[in-house]
Structure formats: C-alpha cells, structure tokens
Amino acid sequence: MNTIYLDFDNTITNFDILDFFIDNFLSVKQRMDFEYQLKANIITHDVYIEKVCALFTNLNISEDMLFRSLYELDIIDPHFNKFASFCYSNNIKIVILSFGFKQVIQFILKNYNFVVHANDYKIQNDVWIPVLLNKNKEEFITTPYPKVFIGDGISDTHVASKVDILFAKKGYYLEAYCKENSIKFTQYTDFNDIIKKLMCILKNE
Q1: Does residue 205 register a pLDDT over 70?
Q2: Within a 13 Å sphere around the CA of 198, how many CA atoms are in the beta-carbon half?
Q3: Is the CB of residue 143 less than 8 Å from the CB of residue 2?
Q4: What whole-number distance in Å separates Cα of residue 35 and Cα of residue 167?
Q5: 80-89 and 191-204 helices, crossing angle to 10°
Q6: CA dihedral over 151, 154, 159, 164, signed as positive or negative
Q7: Is the model's pLDDT at 73 over the cut of 70?
Q8: Is the pLDDT of residue 170 over 90?
Q9: pLDDT the model gives residue 143
Q10: Handedness of CA 147, 153, 158, 161 (dihedral sign)
Q11: What is the pLDDT of residues 62-71, one digit of tens each?
C-alpha cells in the first residue's frame, strides 16, 4: 500500500461544502430539485454535477467572502489530522478525488500538501465560471499497489468495484449501494475507525 484515495465532502469534512455554499448564497430549492432528479434516476450524476456547478455563475460574492463564510465552522473530521500523520509516518501518499472545487478544498486543507483532483473555477469580470473535471474518479486511481479508497456518496459508486480495499461511511449512500450490489467494504464512522483497520492491514502485509 503506497497511496490512499479519498473523497472530500462528507468524508474528510463533516458536511457537504458545495451544498453549504448553495444553501447560503444561491438556491436551496434548485439544489433540492436537482438532488431529487438524481435520486429518482431522472438525471445522471454527471448531469447533476453540471447543474450544481452551473448555479455558481449566479454567485454575487467574492472568493474571499465565500471562504470567510467557513470561518469558525467545525468542518474537518476530528480524527483526520491523526489519519494524515499516520499516512505520513507509513510513507502512504494521500490523493483527494472530488467533484467539489479545488480552490475550496485547498483552502480548507491549507495546512496539508495533498494531490487534489477536483473541479475548478475561474472568476472573470466578477463572474464565476466553473471548469469541470469531466472524468470519473476511477480514472485517477492508477497505483500498481493495492488500491484503497475512502468515500461516502453517489460519486464514489464508480470506484466501489474497482478498488481492493473500500471504506464506506456508515449511514451514507455508498454503504447502501455496496450492500445492494454485494460489494465488499469496511464500514467506518470517522477516521479513527480507518486508522485501526489500516494498522491491521499494514501489520499483515
């Protein structure tokens, strides 16, 4: 094991950051409409991401104000720093795969130095322009060693059957999907659970 791939929203974070921005600065109703269409299989996940990101073209605040809205919020899993230190001590690289915005992820994780593959945006004449990744997460999982992924949601289902070791967050969509499709996974509640499991795996390697 030399690399661990992670989702960001609801995995590293305690809530979905894009949802937070949309609900506070854009349109809760539109987000919920898109979510309903996704869960009802009216639209694909790719279309859902396009629609959600397109909402940001209506954003009327600066990047600095957007980031300031995150101050003093309990954003990151309380055991994540311990997890990052564990990986560093064991020479395990952390790669983040997300359909959120890279700049936001890098701002939240500014104390770390991780590789991040995510959507992007540009701001031109005060207009936010999303720049989509247009790739599924599994396309970035390239390590020749046992493939490890940690996630929670619909976007992580593309990865589920493609990795050797899968961690799915308790009570979230990915866990239900794995059960429904007989995909082997390890349930976790927080990163402390993951550390314990990884210690056992490394001990037996």
Answers
A1: no
A2: 27
A3: yes
A4: 24
A5: 20
A6: positive
A7: yes
A8: yes
A9: 87
A10: positive
A11: 999 999 999 9
Report the distance separating Cα 191 and Cα 81, nearest Å: 9
SS3 label, residue 157: helix
Burial 3-23 (b: 16+ CB within 10 A, else e): bbbbbbbbbbbbebbbbbbbe
Tallying the residues shown for the chain, one arrives at 205
Rounded to two decimals, the pTM is 0.93
Burial of 25 (0-12, 13-18, 19+ CB in 10 A): middle
Residue 141, Cβ neighbours under 10 Å: how many? 17
d(CA 14, CA 73): 10
End-to-end Cα, the chain, rounded Å: 9
Q: What are phi and psi of 45, to 5 degrees?
A: -65, -35
